Automatic annotation (TrEMBL):
Residue ranges flagged as DNA-binding region: 35-54
Any one of the GO BP annotations: negative regulation of DNA-templated transcription
HTH tetR-type domain ranges (all copies): 12-72
Pfam family, one: TetR_N
Lineage per the UniProt record: Bacteria, Pseudomonadati, Pseudomonadota, Alphaproteobacteria, Rhodobacterales
Coiled-coil residue spans: none
Gene3D superfamilies to which the protein is assigned, alphabetical: Homeodomain-like, Tetracycline Repressor, domain 2
Protein name: TetR family transcriptional regulator
Keyword list, A-Z: DNA-binding
Family matches, as SUPFAM superfamilies: Homeodomain-like, Tetracyclin repressor-like, C-terminal domain
Record flagged with keyword DNA-binding: yes
Molecular function per GO: DNA-binding transcription factor activity; transcription cis-regulatory region binding
Organism in which the protein naturally occurs: Pacificibacter maritimus
Amino acid sequence: MREKTPRTRIQKKNHQTILEAALNVFSQHGFRGATLDQIAQEAALSKPNLLYYFPSKVAIHRALIDRLMTTWLDPLRELDAHGDPIEEILSYVLRKLSMAREFPRESRLFANEIVQGAPNVGDKISGDLKFLVDEKVGVIAGWSQAGKIASIDPYHLIFSIWATTQHYADFDAQIRGILAADDDAHFDDAAVFLERMFRQMLKP
């Protein structure tokens, strides 16, 4: 099989520029609302030039999701079955909150996809994500059965962590409007609140 010709520096730069532009557009408008014209304009490239790198809107979106899923799953992968149960779970909460702070566009991209029924990531949810969640649920269930944490449904614990951390990215405008926030100090307050709340919930 003939090997692909390595990308030039300009091609690599344009590829990355398109993905960054698409992330902005998809995170604001969702997959259905986004257009190739919008992405091309955001990237400051012509539409034919964009199509040289990606044959369709679906291809761009898929590339973003593939890149996102690796990053998105890392905080849960780090939950260590051999660590202190409560501290491991609290560290996961804080890692997820940190991601909401550092990667708000990625969070909104994923949220928009899920709200629309996950048409482009359904296989990943039922595949890599489910396998990882099931694995960590087994760890948390073991801690609970051993009396190291409170008796708790591990799946709903993970769902509640997602809900209370990703909210700060997905509903950023609402939070900033209510708090009249012009900086990220509320993330520090959220970290203190969530750590206290989950610690109380998890105490055996």
